[in-house]
Design goal:
The chain contains 13 helices and 14 strands. It is α/β, with parallel strands linked by helices. 49% of the residues are buried.
């Protein structure tokens, strides 16, 4: 998906990157405070995870919506360092930002940091991290629905009895929510047998999980389904399945999607059968819009949920979808989420 950004200035220093966009005079006249002087509004994105296509697309959505609003955006990237992410929240507070988006992270490291921001009268929204704070709206992809759609497709393809490998790392809010659905499905369908659980968030995530998947496949040759509810996990599993020559014996079901994922799913004989996803760029846009509503004195709700879509290998082939742009064009529900869109809110041009 490509966005026509309004003119903005970019600067970078260390781990902090600034993006500034200036709203036009005509737009500012119709905007509520503080967006009537949008160039004076400073917001920060504080990231825990950034490796992979999903997170690059999410960032592009944040940038595009911030540019459409005309605000000054600062991006902090902790690269999976929980202590550094908490410190970066404090850095954003010290910079005098008006609002903060916390993107992923660990509850135990972010809870106190976010409370410090709230105590400083800074508005905060959190994407896929539970900071256990009633003042902080939670931006979600409806992770339980992501897992449900993928697992329903797995049952449709493989029946109600199969041995599965499961990729999971506890302590990450979206993965924990997807795990709840996996456990519900195992309880509901007694024929689903979990042969192995593995997973890591070590960088590079796909290759690190491929290393673990190789061992799992060797130890469990009767696995026929791999549930990998994060696309970097699925990429790693696919590497191991391909290397083992098992693409015709194992089907992979995942969550999230990117152009690289679409290409991998459409390879001849690919084991990657389906994924359930929201558009990460759209989720990034929604995160900024929800924060903007708080800054304007409006309530986006305690949970701001972006609905997911099932994307199967068969559908991609039938519609000849080769990338994210074509996915949005041929599946309009994927290209935009009518979520957190007050009448005054300018949207990125497409």
């Amino acid at each position: 998906m490509e966005f026509k950004r309004r003119g903005f200035l970019a600067s970078a220093s260390g781990l902090v990157f600034g993006l500034t966009a200036f709203a036009t005079g005509g737009l500012a006249q119709d905007m509520p405070a503080p967006f009537d002087i949008a160039g004076d509004v400073k917001i920060a994105l504080v990231r825990y995870l950034s490796t992979g296509d999903f997170f690059q697309a999410y960032l592009s959505g944040v940038e595009a919506q911030a540019a459409a609003l005309g605000v000054d955006l600062r991006v902090f990237d902790s690269r999976q360092d929980a202590a550094l992410q908490a410190d970066m929240v404090d850095q954003a507070i010290a910079l005098g930002v008006d609002g903060i988006i916390v993107q992923h992270g660990l509850t135990e490291s972010m809870q106190e940091a976010v409370q410090r921001a709230v105590d400083a009268d800074i508005k905060v929204v959190a994407f896929d991290v539970n900071v256990e704070n009633p003042a902080v709206p939670q931006i979600e992809q409806s992770d339980r629905d992501l897992a449900r759609l993928a697992l329903e497709q797995a049952i449709a393809d493989n029946g109600e009895e199969f041995k599965a490998g499961y990729v999971y790392v506890p302590g990450i809010a979206p993965l924990d929510r997807r795990d709840e659905t996996w456990r519900d499905f195992k309880d509901r369908y007694e024929g689903i047998k979990e042969a192995a659980v593995f997973g890591t968030l070590d960088n590079p995530i796909a290759n690190s999980n491929a290393n673990q998947a190789r061992s799992v496949l060797q130890a469990n040759p009767d696995i026929t389904v791999m549930f990998a509810p994060y696309d970097e996990f699925a990429k790693g599993v696919k590497i191991a399945v391909d290397e083992a020559g098992l693409s015709d014996q194992i089907k992979i079901y995942s969550a999230d999607v990117s152009t690289a994922d679409i290409s991998a799913m459409r390879e001849e004989g690919s084991a990657w059968a389906a994924t359930a996803a929201t558009n990460p760029a759209v989720v990034g846009e929604v995160s900024v819009r929800a924060l903007a509503m708080l800054l304007a004195g409006e309530d986006p709700g305690a949970q701001v949920v972006v609905p997911p879509t099932l994307i199967s290998q068969d559908m991609l082939n039938e519609l000849d979808i080769k990338n994210m742009e074509e996915l949005g064009a041929k599946m309009p529900q994927f290209a935009h989420a009518d979520v957190a869109v007050p009448e005054w809110m300018p949207l990125p041009a497409r």
